[in-house]
Design goal:
Layout: E1 2-5, E2 8-11, H1 17-28, E3 35-44, H2 48-61, E4 67-70, E5 79-82, E6 90-95, H3 101-117, E7 128-136, E8 139-146, H4 153-171, H5 183-195, H6 200-207, E9 231-237, H7 239-253, H8 257-273, E10 277-284, E11 301-308, H9 315-331, H10 338-344, E12 357-363, E13 368-370, E14 373-383, E15 389-395, E16 400-407, H11 413-432, H12 446-453, H13 469-479, E17 484-488, E18 491-494, H14 495-511, E19 519-522, H15 528-540, E20 543-546, H16 553-563, E21 567-570, E22 584-587, H17 588-595, E23 612-617, E24 627-631, H18 632-646, E25 653-656, H19 666-675, E26 678-681, H20 684-687, H21 690-699, E27 704-707, H22 709-715, E28 729-733, H23 739-748, E29 753-758, E30 768-771, E31 788-789, E32 793-798, E33 812-817, E34 831-834
Parallel strand pairs: 6-7, 10-12, 12-15, 17-26, 19-20, 19-21, 21-22, 25-26, 25-27, 27-28, 28-29
Antiparallel strand pairs: 1-2, 3-8, 3-14, 4-5, 7-8, 9-16, 10-11, 13-14, 15-16, 17-18, 23-24, 29-30, 30-31, 32-33, 33-34
Length: 836
């Protein structure tokens, strides 16, 4: 083909579809080291001069290795311009005979890494480099790297085979005469094929494939890319035993190792992502015509191989379906034009990858013998696209290896080590039982299983609560009677004053028949009386039932009747909001004179750790609200565990800004009053006004604040946003916490530690904590992790079959331990909640 432009012209061949894609890809980032490379062990007497001559002969033999890429300014793509003589190629020698074996290995690996990082300049060249490393007089390593515009992985085998032949002929003074098919000719045939009318069947096949999920697949523990594509690899030798077992299974099923290993890879991806449709970019060698098997060039095609997973699907079913899909894809492989497909869906090649997950399988050739030397390929690497993870399985004479190539900007070495272990477990599981249900296959090795089930749940301590919350409060009364216990606006009570009022209320409630296992409602606006009521009920031996004054009457009526509340403590101005009920109503503001007649001295406690402390109702969003019954031992356990985990004893002032009808505020109320601190009770109106709350916090130093993330986010929209943050510790809970909010808080108050605190109501306030002590914590999602369990708490994330899920994989949370409530859950001592 000849193009004329002004007084210049270029004569050459059109790029193949594969080369066009590679050209576009590489020009997105010229620094990426796209290429193929191999390490060849050469044993025996080696004539280095003849070796160089042999390399030149291989280059002369294959036109693609003498090809330059030229274009004029108006051209989107260059032409393949074939030179008559060999272009310049780089050659380095390294003599390592003076080093120890360990030093030689390290230096050889350093040269391999150097080759891996080498990026070719396509329009300037050279596009090939060789390193010859001498280890011993008759032991050398030849390392070759070529541009992907020149070669694919299979071409490396052809290059080394031809090199051994040319080396042998050169030693004998001859040359290798028969010529292979040239890449430019094959590219021209392929381009014509795609334009021909007979391609309709192939195009129809690929256009019928719904590949919408090709860009949605991602591992749950991936981080957001920040520094571009950074390819790394991990090699795992599966061994001869596994290889023999795979071959036996393939023989029984009438399939190939290629299909079996791909099925295992897709199964693992399905189990990790729960995405029913798994599309994997799978390598086909593209050498579909006679003669191409010996040719050099980028013939390989990565085709989208899709498997549809179903519940109760067996592995043998997947194997049969995948075998059919691969056969059809292979038949029409020449008609999948990725460059055209990319344009049709307006794919952005600057995105991290085209196929997120890839797979390749190849059988490595045996050693090539040339005169007194033997050439054996030790390892290969091919970087021809971006990916998240590419699994390459290599079958040698005596073993099977799995190479996990991954993007280091998205996944850590620890992640890939775990992924590799899980792949081996899946492979072993299907070898043991090919009829196994896919959703029942084990994917955890013993190390990971032990970590999930044992190590991360080693939270048991010998300490057990021996006193109730109100008894711990009474100890603080004895220690610091004149210290300020609670503050509400301009009113405050010392520990002695608060204790006296609570004792008077407890005596009054005792006279009304309140005692252990009896429920007393609290329907009060946030105030000093709210805390007096809470402590008074506990001191009387009863259990409190917090009610939100603004809740619908029907909900209030239901909770009063369902809980069997004997007494309801309220305020006179709230009476009109309450439902008709046989429950005794006591207005603390108007009836306190009667209550104050009771003795202010401490009553004899009849409460045991196994008695109810409070009853709290769920929202009822999934139906009828359900009561959660929390005992004193669970509440005391929570206080001890969260205080120890978060170091709350170092805080002297706490603020509660939430309603008592949710247990969120318990994280501040009980550690404050049972630890000798000061509790600031913030009224509902001020708590929702960022400016007003900021003004209050500027007058009263607050060490610890527990708040819902969305509530805090709204407060931070005001002019006094810095003032609403605590001095030492910010505890977020009640809903998912976005990283964006955490980043804002960290910038505003870098000295404040941020903690994510999670737990269903049934686990007594919270069961997990995630501390943001390290600002560079890995971010695997847009929200903070839930964290690790508190002391004496066990947590498991299970799938639908109650199998433990791998790290980062979604499932259902199962929580058990000292903090789990006594009743109104499906299983005693166990609660489940969807993990999102």
């Amino acid at each position: 083909m000849e193009l004329e432009y002004q007084t210049r012209d270029i004569e050459g061949f059109l790029l193949s579809p594969q080369q066009k894609y590679l050209w576009r890809l590489q020009h997105q980032d010229l620094s990426q080291p796209y290429g193929v490379q191999c390490e060849v062990l050469v044993e025996g007497r080696l004539d280095k001069t003849i070796l160089k001559i042999a390399i030149e002969q291989v280059i002369d033999r294959h036109e693609i290795l003498r090809t330059n890429f030229r274009r004029l300014s108006a051209m989107d793509f260059p032409l393949q311009v074939i030179a008559d003589t060999s272009p310049a190629w780089q050659f380095e020698e390294h003599d390592l005979r003076h080093l120890t074996q360990e030093e030689q290995s390290a230096q050889a690996e350093a040269i391999w890494e150097e080759a891996t990082r080498l990026a070719f300049t396509l329009e300037e060249g050279p596009l090939m480099k060789a390193w010859l490393v001498t280890l011993m007089s008759e032991r050398h390593v030849l390392l070759l790297k070529l541009s992907v515009m020149y070669a694919d992985a299979a071409s490396l085998d052809n290059f080394v085979r031809d090199l051994s032949l040319c080396y042998q002929f050169s030693l004998q003074g001859g040359s290798l005469n028969d010529g292979p098919v040239q890449y430019a000719d094959a590219a021209q045939v392929h381009n014509e094929l795609l334009r021909g009318e007979e391609t309709s069947a192939g195009r129809k096949y690929w256009s019928a494939q719904d590949l919408g999920s090709v860009r949605t697949l991602r591992l749950p523990y991936e981080v957001d890319p920040g520094t571009g594509f950074r390819p790394r690899s991990l090699n795992v030798v599966l061994g001869r035993k596994v290889e023999r077992e795979i071959e036996a299974l393939c023989s029984q099923q009438g399939t190939s190792s290629f299909v079996l290993l791909l099925a295992c890879w897709q199964t693992l991806l399905w189990r990790l992502t729960a995405q029913a449709e798994i599309v994997v970019g799978t390598d086909f060698d593209g050498r579909t015509y006679d003669g191409l098997e010996d040719a050099m060039g980028f013939f390989a095609r990565s085709l989208p191989i899709k498997s549809q997973f179903r519940v109760k699907m067996r592995f043998v079913e997947l194997l049969e379906e995948l075998k059919q899909t691969i056969a059809e894809s292979a038949e029409f492989q020449e008609y999948f034009d990725r460059e055209s497909w990319t344009e049709s869906v307006k794919e952005d090649l600057s995105a991290p990858d085209f196929f997120a997950f890839c797979f390749s399988y190849r059988r490595a050739p045996s050693a090539f013998v040339a005169a007194d030397s033997e050439f054996r390929i030790l390892k290969r690497a091919a970087l021809s696209d971006r990916f998240r993870v590419q699994l390459s399985c290599v079958h040698t004479d005596d073993s099977l290896a799995a190479e996990f190539h991954y993007d280091e900007s998205l996944l850590s070495t620890q992640d890939i080590n775990r992924l590799a272990g899980e792949f081996l477990v899946v492979l072993t599981s299907v070898i043991e039982d090919r009829n196994a249900l896919l959703d029942c296959l084990n994917i955890l090795n013993e190390t990971e299983r032990h970590q999930l089930l044992v190590e991360w749940n080693s939270t048991r301590t010998e300490e057990r609560p021996d006193r109730c919350a109100h008894q711990l409060f009474e100890e603080q009364v004895r220690r610091r009677p004149e210290s300020i216990a609670i503050i509400f606006e301009d009113d405050q009570l010392t520990y002695r004053e608060l204790d006296a009022r609570a004792n008077q209320l407890a005596g009054y409630l005792r006279n009304q028949g309140v005692g252990p296992e009896r429920t007393v409602g609290i329907c009060l606006e946030r105030s000093l009386d709210m805390i007096v009521a809470l402590l008074g009920i506990l001191k009387a031996g009863g259990a409190y039932l917090p009610l939100e004054p603004t809740a619908p009457r029907e909900r209030l009526r239901f909770m009063l009747e369902d809980s069997g509340a004997q007494v309801l403590l309220t305020q006179s101005h709230l009476l009109e909001l309450l439902p008709d009920s046989p429950t005794l109503l006591v207005s603390l503001d108007t009836e306190w004179g009667l209550i104050a007649e009771e003795k202010a001295e401490l009553l004899r406690s009849e409460t045991k750790l196994g008695n109810l402390a409070y009853v709290i109702y769920t929202s009822g969003s999934s139906g009828t609200p359900k009561a959660v019954a929390v005992e004193h031992r669970q509440l005391s356990h929570y206080m001890a565990a969260v205080t120890g985990e978060l170091g709350l004893s170092s805080c002297s002032s706490f603020a509660t800004v939430s309603t008592l009808s949710a247990d969120l505020g318990h994280t501040a109320i009980y550690p404050a009053l049972c630890g000798g601190g000061t509790l600031h009770v913030i009224g509902a109106e001020r708590a929702m006004d960022g400016a007003a709350l900021g003004e209050y916090f500027s007058r009263h130093t607050i060490d610890c604040l527990k708040i819902v993330p969305s509530h805090l986010a709204s407060l931070l929209m005001t002019s006094r946003k810095e003032s609403v943050l605590p001095r030492q510790l910010l505890i977020l809970g009640g809903e998912a916490t976005p990283w964006e909010l955490v980043d804002r808080i960290a910038r505003m108050n870098p000295g404040c530690e941020i903690v994510n605190h999670y737990g269903p109501t049934e686990t007594t306030v919270g069961a997990l904590t995630y501390r943001m002590s390290d600002p560079s914590a890995v971010r695997i999602s847009v929200r903070l992790p839930l964290g690790r369990p508190l002391a004496n708490t066990e947590l498991y994330i299970l799938d639908g079959q109650l199998w433990p899920q791998p790290v980062g994989v979604a499932g259902e949370i199962y929580i058990g331990g000292a903090g789990v409530s006594r009743g109104y859950v499906n299983q005693p001592g166990l609660t489940a909640e969807r993990f999102i």
